[in-house]
């Protein structure tokens, strides 16, 4: 038996999220169907975390156990021939049996993208939230500073969350702007949040609130006040899902190392 780890990228537009559901239209469903065809085994995939319907991934991490003898260097090519074009696996490696893609993770980074200006980008319409007027990015950056550190994020968490604690640590929060597109007269704003873990809809609620800061409807200092309130009603709306991407999941190198086997 082997424990195989892979990175999965996907455009979440067509899917009902990552985690398997009765509809069988999830990323996990397609991964497990491909594994069944490839190995003849009914395999349960474990992921670093769930993503909702319409949310994308650049760096989702999965692991699964298999008795298949397929050489490690052939897994990705074989899987990608069986997967839809909007799901791609990469970076396959064999890891220690105790490796768990969710429990072994030490930090995750999400990116939320807003296109701001006169015209949307047609080719990125599934990856960006379009905002037709300019936003005050300096104020948004100042607001982001308040979420860094260890806080109770109840105000930035869906009331549907079932977590026992809403305390999370944000290691880094930054806002970057792409150069303006002269033809479209618009530009992309990227909000990056890196933390120990995230609550249900946490990144999207932070993004929705920051958009209000950028619009001048709230001050930068309001982010701190909202955090202290521990009341979801005090925060802004939940931003639309298609602007969100699971950007990267990080692990200690020891967790991903197995002697005599190399990464692709």
From TrEMBL:
UniProt entry keywords in alphabetical sequence: Isomerase, tRNA processing
Residues noted as binding substrate in the record, renumbered to the chain: 110
One MF annotation (Gene Ontology) recorded for this entry: tRNA pseudouridine(38-40) synthase activity
Reactions it catalyzes: uridine(38/39/40) in tRNA = pseudouridine(38/39/40) in tRNA
The organism's place on the tree of life at top rank: Bacteria
Tagged with keyword Metal-binding: no
Residue ranges occupied by any Pseudouridine synthase I TruA alpha/beta domain in the UniProt entry: 8-100, 146-252
A Pfam entry, by short name: PseudoU_synth_1
Enzyme Commission number(s) from the entry: 5.4.99.12
Active site location: 52 (nucleophile)
Keyword Isomerase: yes
InterPro entries reported in the protein's UniProt record: PsdUridine_synth_cat_dom_sf, PsdUridine_synth_TruA, PsdUridine_synth_TruA_a/b_dom, PsdUridine_synth_TruA_C, TruA/RsuA/RluB/E/F_N
GO biological process: tRNA pseudouridine synthesis
Role summary: Formation of pseudouridine at positions 38, 39 and 40 in the anticodon stem and loop of transfer RNAs.
Subunit record text: Homodimer.
Matching NCBIfam families: hisT_truA
Stored PANTHER family: PSEUDOURIDYLATE SYNTHASE (PTHR11142), TRNA PSEUDOURIDINE SYNTHASE-LIKE 1 (PTHR11142:SF0)
Family: Belongs to the tRNA pseudouridine synthase TruA family.
Protein name per UniProt: tRNA pseudouridine synthase A
Organism this protein belongs to: Paenibacillus rigui
């Amino acid at each position: 038996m082997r424990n195989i780890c892979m990175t999965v990228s996907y455009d979440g537009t067509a899917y009902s999220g990552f985690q398997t559901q009765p509809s069988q239209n999830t990323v996990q469903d397609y991964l497990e169907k491909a594994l069944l065809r490839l190995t003849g085994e009914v395999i349960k995939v474990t992921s670093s975390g769930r993503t909702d319907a319409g949310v994308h991934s650049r760096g989702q991490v999965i692991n699964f156990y298999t008795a298949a003898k397929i050489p490690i260097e052939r897994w990705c090519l074989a899987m990608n021939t069986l997967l839809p074009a909007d799901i791609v696996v990469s970076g396959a490696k064999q890891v220690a049996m105790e490796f768990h893609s969710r429990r072994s993770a030490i930090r995750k980074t999400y990116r939320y993208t807003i296109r701001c200006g006169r015209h949307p980008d047609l080719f990125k319409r599934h990856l960006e939230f379009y905002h037709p007027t300019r936003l005050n990015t300096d104020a948004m950056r100042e607001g982001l500073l308040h979420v860094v550190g260890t806080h109770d994020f109840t105000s930035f968490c869906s009331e549907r969350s079932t977590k026992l604690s809403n305390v999370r640590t944000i290691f880094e929060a930054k806002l970057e702007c792409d150069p303006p597109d002269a033809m479209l007269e618009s530009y992309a704003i990227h909000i990056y949040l890196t933390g120990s873990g995230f609550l249900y809809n946490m990144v999207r609620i932070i993004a929705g609130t920051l958009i209000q800061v950028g619009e001048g409807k709230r001050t930068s200092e309001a982010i701190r006040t909202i955090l202290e309130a521990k009341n979801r009603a005090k925060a802004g709306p939940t931003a639309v899902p298609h602007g969100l991407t699971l950007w990267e999941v990080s692990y200690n190198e020891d967790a991903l190392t197995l002697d005599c086997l190399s990464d692709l």
